[in-house]
UniProtKB/TrEMBL annotation:
It comes from Winogradskyella pulchriflava. Residues 210-309 form the Peptidase M20 dimerisation domain. It is an enzyme of class 3 (hydrolase). Coiled coil: none annotated. Zn(2+) 1 binds at H81, D144, D201. Zn(2+) 2 binds at D144, E179, H383. The active site is at D83, E178. HAMAP family: Aminopeptidase_M20. This is Peptidase T. The keyword Translocase does not apply. InterPro entries: ArgE/DapE_CS, Bact_exopeptidase_dim_dom, Peptidase_M20, Peptidase_M20_dimer, Peptidase_M20B. Keywords: Aminopeptidase, Cytoplasm, Hydrolase, Metal-binding, Metalloprotease, Protease, Zinc. GO terms for molecular function: tripeptide aminopeptidase activity. It comes from the Bacteria.
Length: 412
């Protein structure tokens, strides 16, 4: 069997196991079915010859590839998550293989007329002539992040079978529940024992990310007074009008639909209104720590100003930090990004370094003491029926992992 076919088979073996996570569950993993793939991964890691393969009560998997050199080399790690997004079903995934992609529309499902088209998803044209794995149009694919797992396992297997590649100690970590924001929560950084790590959880080939948003959530409550509308003059206070004053006091163009790159925003993602009380739910995002703090301060000031204006405690606000920009933790150890960039260059991959407009498990891990940039896993259009992954990108990711291991050993 060719290495390419092996990687396809391995990937299909993972994505055909349903591991959808569930934000409404309090257990870890959030769904029992995640154990199905977790247990399989443990067996596989043992089978390829990894050491110290463990799985804990929360289904966090760790394994070690010991160093094959005499001198000291820092311990590096590679991390992926095995759950898939609850945004779209991950049950009964039936991967389709498109060989030698011709740059035209791909009919995912003729019956339901579901087409993956470069007219809409122009990234497809990057992969002309390559082998694509797509869905059958009725599920997501799960390349996020089973492509990452496929790549890490394949790279470890390659290093085990190629002693001539010199490397230091390498740790592997697979987590549940990343898609519901809990992948890092119960990750035992001390047990993992790496000096730094990489999540293999980015998208397009070349992506390398070490900056993400600072993030907070805000809940604003406006209080009113309900009175029979027929007798309301001078008595009724309609909280929904108050709430709209708050909404309009924020800069209208600093919202997700008007921003990009390093521009931060306020995002109103929920309103629950009655005359008596209206609740507004926001998320606040900014790469810059000072601007992030200023955004939170602005919301609090608007609440104070409006309470003063209406001469009453009409508004209450509660702001909770969610995660922070990993840049702060990665910049002091910038060589970990440089090594990844150098690895890509040596392999003829153009590094695409850009700020993430979101968070990753790596941002949480970075603040838990494990600096953790994010590297491409190769897939596109995550969390939906148009998800696909070029096999060649997965193969390149395998090479990047091996090259990072090699460069880390050389740099010492
Ligand atoms: Zn992911």
């Amino acid at each position: 069997m060719t290495p390419k076919q092996r990687i396809i088979n391995r990937f299909i073996g993972y994505v055909t196991i349903d591991t959808e996570s569930d934000p409404n569950s309090n257990t870890t993993p959030s769904t029992k079915k995640q154990w199905d793939l977790a247990n399989k991964l443990v067996m596989e890691l043992k089978a390829i010859g990894m050491s110290d393969v463990t799985i804990d009560d929360n289904a966090y998997i760790m394994a070690t590839l010991p160093s094959n050199v005499d001198h000291h080399v820092p311990t590096i790690g590679f991390i992926s998550h095995f759950d898939t997004s609850p945004d779209f079903t991950g049950a009964n995934v039936k991967p389709q293989i498109v060989e030698d992609y011709d740059g035209k529309d791909i009919v995912l499902n003729a019956e339901e007329n579901i087409v993956l088209s470069p007219d809409y998803f122009e990234d497809l044209l990057l992969y002309k002539g390559q082998t694509l794995i797509t869905t059958d149009g009725t599920t997501l694919l799960g390349a996020d992040d089973k492509a990452g797992i496929t790549e890490i396992v394949t790279a470890m297997e390659y290093l085990i079978n190629h002693h001539e590649i010199k490397h230091g100690p390498i740790k592997v970590g697979f987590t549940p529940d990343e898609e519901i924001g809990r992948g890092a929560h119960k990750f035992d950084v001390e047990k993992f024992g790496a000096d730094w790590a990489y999540t293999m959880d980015g998208s397009q080939i070349g992506e390398l990310e070490y900056e993400n948003f600072n993030a907070a959530g805000a809940v604003i409550k406006a209080k009113g007074k309900i009175v029979h509308p027929g007798y309301a003059k001078g008595k009724m206070v309609n909280s929904m009008y108050y709430a709209s004053e708050f909404i309009n006091a924020l800069p209208r163009l600093e919202t997700p639909e008007h921003t990009e790159g390093y521009e931060g925003f306020f995002h109103l993602h929920g309103i629950n209104g009655k005359v008596e009380e209206t609740t507004l739910k926001y998320i606040i995002r900014d790469h810059d720590k000072d601007k992030f703090e200023a955004r939170k301060a602005l919301m609090e000031k608007i609440v104070l100003d409006l309470n003063t204006k209406f001469e009453a405690e009409v508004f209450e606000i509660e702001i909770k930090d969610q995660y922070f920009n990993m840049k702060e933790k990665v910049e002091p150890v910038m060589h970990i990004v440089d090594i990844a960039e150098e690895a890509m260059k040596q392999l003829g991959i153009t590094p695409l370094i850009k700020p993430i407009r979101g968070g990753t498990d790596g941002s949480q891990l970075s603040y838990m003491g494990l600096p953790c940039p994010n590297i491409f896993a190769g897939g596109h259009n995550f969390h939906g029926r148009y998800e696909y992954v070029p096999v060649e990108s997965m193969q390149k990711a395998v090479e990047v992992i091996c090259k990072i291991a090699e460069l880390t050993a050389q740099n010492q």
